[in-house]
Amino acid sequence: MTETDVIEIWCHRHGEKDGDKLTALGAQQVWALGEMLREREIYFNRVFYSEAMRTWQSALLLIAAMKLRTKNPEGRQDFHYSTGSEAFSSNEEFSEECERIKNKGNNMVIAFQESNYLRICRPIITKALLGIAKEMKSQKEARAILFGHSPMLLSAVPEPEKITFGLSECDGVIYRISGDKIVEAEKINAPIRGSSIY
């Protein structure tokens, strides 16, 4: 596999929120992420968001911080926080499940064993990532970034034993895709750490 065969999709949790809008800290988290990526000369051909307000705001701030050519992030309903929500009857039930996973070892192997939500999300998110990669390859694009929600963004990891459960605000997972397969996933931390929820 050569480097040009691999499409990277960087999936980041949105910044800190209040309701469905970023807080001042959330905006700072996203801006710092964009500056860090620009300083490391990591650029993106496309920017996606989950169609929630906080992910749209995150995408716009990242575009500005990185001075990307693209001005319009693309909405992706399949990454919306409502995906897989039929697994829960309430937000409290979701929170309890996440706490149970953390208390049992905080890794994705346990998360998949314990979480009906992640098992529902896994094929949906995997299919969405592979679809984006296929489209990008046809356009000769190599890298995209997407703002979405945790723990959903972790549901497509190919080797769950290598990944811890949950993303703090603006943390992310880089998916590397070759052909029709996710070959690798790597977690990365945001420069301004957020709360470690899910």
**Which term fits the overall shape?**
globular
Share in β-strands: 15-25%
Which fold name is given in CATH as the topology?
Rossmann fold
Q: Uncertain segments of ≥5 residues (pLDDT<50)?
A: none
Secondary-structure content class: alpha/beta
Q: How are strands sequenced across the largest beta sheet?
A: 5-4-6-1-7-8
Radius of gyration: 16 Å
CATH domain class name: Alpha Beta
- Order of SSEs: EEEHEHEHHHEEE
List keywords for this structure.
alpha/beta, Rossmann fold, six-stranded mixed sheet, two-stranded antiparallel ribbon
How would you portray this structure in words?
The protein is an alpha/beta fold and 198 residues long. The chain has one domain: Phosphoglycerate mutase-like (Rossmann fold), CATH 3.40.50.1240. It is 37% helix and 20% strand. The strands form two sheets. Strands 5-4-6-1-7-8 form a six-stranded mixed β-sheet. Helix 1 runs parallel beside helix 2 (53-66). The mean pLDDT is 92.
